[in-house]
Amino acid sequence: MSFDQAIDIPEIFDADDLRVTLLKEKARYSLRLKSQDVTAIKKASGLKLPAKIMGSTRTKDIICAKLGPDEWIVIADPTQKVKLDKTLAKVSKEFTCSITEISHRNVGFEISGSEAAQLINVGCPMDLSLDKFPVGKAVRTLFESASILLIRTDEHSFHLECWRSFGPYLRDFFARVISTR
Amino acid sequence: MFEIHCPYCNEKRSEIEFAYAGEAHYVRPTAQEQTEMSDEDWSRYMFIRDNIRGEHAERWWHNSGCNMFFNAIRDTVTDKFVMTYKMGQPRRTETQIEAARKNNAEQKAKS
Ligand SMILES: [Zn+2]
Questions:
Q1: What is the DSSP string of chain A?
Q2: Is the interface score ipTM higher than 0.85?
Q3: How far is the CA of B65 from the centre of ligand 1 (A)?
Q4: Tens-digit pLDDT profile for residues B63-111
Q5: Chain B residues near residue A166 by CB distance under 8 angstroms
Q6: Which residue, A51, A146, B36, B89, has most beta carbons within 10 Å?
Q7: A27-102 sits in which CATH class?
């Protein structure tokens, strides 16, 4: 049984205009880096750390998002974990920085469909119009008083993460909103 | 609900993402100064604030966003933010505050 199944959040909703999926287990890291080291750390780790606050980069297996002036989160497919553990351990020895493995701190949802932004806006006041919140934008914000990480992965698709203990609460919230549509 | 401009995110965010963090530009005495200062001066540093009615320089914390502290000029009567600026920058002068007020009014008229 994976960690995600252990708190029993099933795939919760699927319709033409709205689909909410619990993401499978991920490897996650929180990085706090000095700005003068970022270029060297990008080179040493191979991670595409975005330079701009609220920016993100995405490859097939790894998402990197910049949440604060010196703070990044890396979300990767578990197949990358062994390699990333090793690389980042090396980086933390060579540079003055803080790198923390937080794989199981969060759970992630994918919310997609033409009604996706509408569903997120029920609990989150962020302006999700495409010009204010373009594809790739990544923010830490609040959803119904729970701290979330929100990334727009496509015009009608969002990656939303919250701390694990808030997972059932958000799932129930989504389900309740959807049931009253 | 209103919005606050975070100078680090460089955009307006909902007030629920922020926390008030006391009067700004309050310099903590150095360790040396602390050993030399009187109890009275120490208690003044610790507990006594101006509690201004009107334009107040104060710290805010974008705790549910980028997690940075910054400074703001807020009118404590109207609860309107005049301007925000990054930590470490000097206290804003009356002229700067007035210019920001004027700029805000122009922006508002435009929108
Ligand atoms: Zn901010």
A1: --HHHHTT----EE-SS-EEEEPPP-EEEEEE--GGGHHHHHHHH-----SSTT-EEE-SSEEEEEEETTEEEEEE-GGGHHHHHHHHHHHHHHSS-EEEE-TTTEEEEEEESTTHHHHHHHH-----STTTS-TT-EEEEEETTEEEEEEEEETTEEEEEEEGGGHHHHHHHHHHHHHT-
A2: yes
A3: 5
A4: 999 999 999 999 999 999 999 999 999 999 999 999 999 999 999 999 8
A5: none
A6: A146
A7: alpha beta
